[in-house]
Each structure stands twice: as structure tokens, then as C-alpha cells.
Amino acid sequence: MRIGVLGTGMVGQTIGKKLVELGHEVRMGAREAGNEKARQWVMAAGPRASHGTFSDAAAFGEVLFNCTSGDGSIPALKAAGEKNLNDKVLIDVANPLNVKKVPLPELSLCNDDSLGERIQREFPRARVVKSLNTMNCQLMVDPTKIPGDHDVFVCGNDEDAKSTVKELLRELGWAVPIDLGDITASRGTEMVLPLWLRLMVTLKTPMFNLHVAR
Amino acid sequence: MRIGVLGTGMVGQTIGKKLVELGHEVRMGAREAGNEKARQWVMAAGPRASHGTFSDAAAFGEVLFNCTSGDGSIPALKAAGEKNLNDKVLIDVANPLNVKKVPLPELSLCNDDSLGERIQREFPRARVVKSLNTMNCQLMVDPTKIPGDHDVFVCGNDEDAKSTVKELLRELGWAVPIDLGDITASRGTEMVLPLWLRLMVTLKTPMFNLHVAR
Prior knowledge:
The structure is a homodimer. The first copy, chain A, is built from ten helices and eleven strands. By secondary structure, the first copy, chain A, is α/β, with parallel strands linked by helices.
């Protein structure tokens, strides 16, 4: 599958690398075509990897990952271009964290709105699926890095898009995602972040994940 | 131990009953002394149970549970009387849910504030510990109701108060609570509620709980 990964940070690099390893063709998108991190990522990731602008990556991908920082996601997706997002499965793994807040980031959207919803509103023909945003990127692509049962959530308005995402999640090693319903459930998963950040401080590691015991 | 339980709803009744069963003397507090639910609870709970006003229950207890609805907690605690809260361990299990919001309640405080913090600010000499607010009350008092590992969180500014709460949690069946630090961590645990409510809809049961897999 051709996949566009928007964002050159740790999350985009980690997801992109794993998708290449799984046999997908992956184009990483950055604000500018000559982005040095994207270029180095391509050199490390091999022949199925390429890079370009946000627009290049979005046009390339049949499925897109939003791996930009949450507060920059809307501008990045606008730069990607609405026509390159229309009808595509857009997997939003970002969180709307205001990282300027100390000691811990707060959310810049929450409670009666979320980044997932905002992206869906801004790009009504994109098929937005929120997922993977409740864990460290090392776990996103390899849930076996921690033992025992733990969970990944999905939500979105388009059932076919969610099926595509669930299949990709299966390839990444996830058994049965918890489907929380429509995109408004992004509020729930994004609002886990304050607990997640506290847990990271408490446990002194980002290598943990939530499990819904039942 | 003498324990005051503020609130006559399902949470207060369930916690109060279990505390009586564990051998504690429990006084349930309501807005009015003659509260019918409190009276019936006393009849069912037996000789170590009593009831009265918020103020009666707060004066009685060495340790207090705030089991009022989150949006009514500050008025209830004011009715209990600051002098009756001073120096007491006050376990806040409430969530600031605006239940008028449909289809699912939203939080009336979050992100840069929380009910736990607000109670601590309002009653600076109370030793507020936030705990148990991330699960159904049946699980609060009997974690074995669901199989496998799952977690309870505590946070608060007073280490001795947290020790008292951890001991009470142990009596309720909880092994090792996750101590998230000071009372500002209430933001994290209260903000779990939107996910919790979605999960309840998705799983069609409130009998689940979060586990931090690591």
C-alpha cells in the first residue's frame, strides 16, 4: 500500500520505518521538500521510502498518517492540500498538546472538542480515524515491547476507513482494537494525555500502556 | 475507625456499606438530617451505621469520603463546615461531571484545574486525597469483581494522608495503588471520565477498569 506520513519527528519516523519494513511504500512529508530529517530517514529506511512536501506525501498516499505535532496539525494538513486528503483514510495519531505549559503540557482543545473532530470538520471529505494517540511511538509499532494485555483505541465516522485502520493495526501487532464509535470519541482518548504524562513522570518511563480490564 | 461519608447516592451507599462491613463506624451525611435514603441505608447497614447532616457526618469522621455529585461537592463541603474538615483526611471520589450535557456528560472543570484541586484550595487545611474516581462504585469496594490486574490511583499533597488512604484501599482489596504525586494529578484522573463514559457505552457495562500495563 502507498502510505503518506505527515511529520518528520520521532512518531513519523518510527511509524514510517515500521510501515516500510512491513512492505509498504512510504513517503514522508515535511513543511519543505529538502527537510534534512526526512532525507536521513529515507536513507535509513531504504528503497520503499521517499520524502517530499506535505502535499507530495498526501498526494502519494492511499492512506495518510498525521504524525505532526497536534498544535501544528491543521496548518500542516492545509499545506498538504484538501484535494490530496479528500476520500483518503487519514489516521490521526496526534494530540493537541500545548507544550509551552509547564511543568506538564496541557491540552489546547478538550472536553467539548478534540483535534480529531477539528480535523474532520476542517476536511469533511477526509475519512479521519483517531488511533494510537494514547501511547509512546515505540509501542504503536510493536505492542509486544511490554508484556500482557493492553489496548489501542479507534474512532471515526467512516466504518470502511476504520476497517482499513484495524487491518493496519493488525499488521503492527495489535489484536482487536477497541472501537469507541464516531470521531467525537477523540475527546476521550486525547484527554487521557494528562494522566499519561503524569504516569510517565511517576513510572520514569514512557513504556507503558492502558489496558481496559473487564 | 470513625468515617464520615458525604452523599447518599449509589457511591456513598456502596462505600459506606463496605466500610461498615469492614468494622468501621460510618456516619452518612446528607443535606438534611431526615434524609430518607440515608435512613434506609442505616437500617440496611446495621448498628455501626448512622446518619445526619453533612456537618454531623464531617464532625463524626476521622476520615471523610466525598461521595457527593461533583458539581455539588463544594456546596456540600461548605455545608459540612470548614472546621469539621480541617486536618481531616478527605478522600474525594467525585468527578466534576455536568450531567445536563447530552449525549454524554462533559467535565465542568478540566485541563488547567480539577475538582480535587478546587476542594483543596477551598479548604486548605483539609488533607485532600483524590482516589477511586476512575471506576464504578462496585469495583471501588471489590476489585475482584473483574479478573486480572487493574489499577487505582491516588494523589494528594499530604503524604501521611495518602498513607491512610492506601491502607483503607488495601482493606477494600486493592494491592498497590499508583501514587501520581500531588493533588494537581486530579486533572489526569478526572479527565479519564470522557473515555470511561465512552467505554461504558461501547462495552455496555460499567464493570471494567483501567490497568497500566508496563
